[in-house]
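Structure first, sequence second, as always.
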């Protein structure tokens, strides 16, 4: 192998080169679960997703019940909810990952995937949320807890809903059914 080709192969195989590649879908990210395990979001390829930034001490926290009901209704049809706790809004998610997991389980019976607490806005926002808000065609910063992104099975954002949209709203459910029907 010629030296230049070998060096090019080394560069493109390096972690730095992989990180410099622009993500094309949510499947290009690996996130940390609430239990501290690294999970490539590519494991959700082929499924419709609802990505939600959540908090335990927010006026919208009761949406956990709606999220669980939505998950129970559609999980067998290729649907997952990915919940990302964040303390970005008035300190409304102060707990540790273990405390958040226990809160969700004990108070809402949450069985959908929970991820480690992250920043979803401003300086230091996680690259995943930068992608969702800056690079997915659904631009604009997260305005509050319980913003929702509906993701098609190919990993692309198809709709965005604010905090006031309940997960069981006709608007969100009909769009989800449309996405699931097109799988």
């Amino acid at each position: 192998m010629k030296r230049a080709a070998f060096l090019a192969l080394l560069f493109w195989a390096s972690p730095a080169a992989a990180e410099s590649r622009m993500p094309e879908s949510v499947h290009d990210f690996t996130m940390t679960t609430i239990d501290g395990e690294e999970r490539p979001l590519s494991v959700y390829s082929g499924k419709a997703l609802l990505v939600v930034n959540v908090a335990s001490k927010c006026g919208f926290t009761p949406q956990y019940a709606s999220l669980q009901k939505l998950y129970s209704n559609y999980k067998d049809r290729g649907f997952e909810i990915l919940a990302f706790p964040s303390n970005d809004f008035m300190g409304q998610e102060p707990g540790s990952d273990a405390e958040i997991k226990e809160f969700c389980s004990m108070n809402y019976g949450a069985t959908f995937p929970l991820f480690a607490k992250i920043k979803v806005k401003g300086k230091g926002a996680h690259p995943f949320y930068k992608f969702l808000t800056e690079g997915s065609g659904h631009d604009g910063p997260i305005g509050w807890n319980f913003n929702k992104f509906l993701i098609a099975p190919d990993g692309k954002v198809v709709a965005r809903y604010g905090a006031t949209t309940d997960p069981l709203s006709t608007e969100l459910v009909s769009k989800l059914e449309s996405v699931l029907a097109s799988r």
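Margin note: The radius of gyration is 18 Å.
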